[in-house]
Amino acid sequence: MIWAGLISILLTALLVKADALSCYICNSSANVDCMSNLDPVTTPLRPAECNVANSKYCIKTTGTYGGFVGVNRFCSAFDMGTQCDYVSFPDHDRIYRACVYTCQGNRCNKGDTHSFSWLTVLLNTFLLLILRLVVS
After folding, report:
1. What angle do CA 24, 105, 28 make, to 5 degrees?
2. What does the DSSP 8-state code read for residue 78?
3. pTM
4. What CATH fold (topology level) applies to the domain 21-122?
5. Nearest Cα residue to 60 out of 82, 39, 32, 42
6. How do residues 13-54 score in pLDDT, each as one tens digit?
């Protein structure tokens, strides 16, 4: 009976571990490989298991940090949305573009924020068919 209880606890722990979110976690000021879109095959960076309580999201931010353009990738329990905005600072007249990209799913903050859309594919196919009929 004790063995059954211990095995049950062990299996539960393994199942919970399997559900942990995995994101890329880096800061371009400390690691230049964090800057670009990450190719999972060639990048030396590896996704890490999120240690943030209730992590549901992977985040990628781009913007100006300490006067330098940079990228941060991290885990979050909060949906920060996906948006870009122009930011200015009071000490100079430059305007910077800062972006936040929030996603759900393992390793989703690698960088390419383009999502596949069947609607776009269908619309383009439809337009090509119409163009073909008009040209014929």
Report:
1. 20
2. S
3. 0.64
4. CD59 (2.10.60)
5. 82
6. 444 445 689 999 999 989 989 987 888 788 899 999 999 999
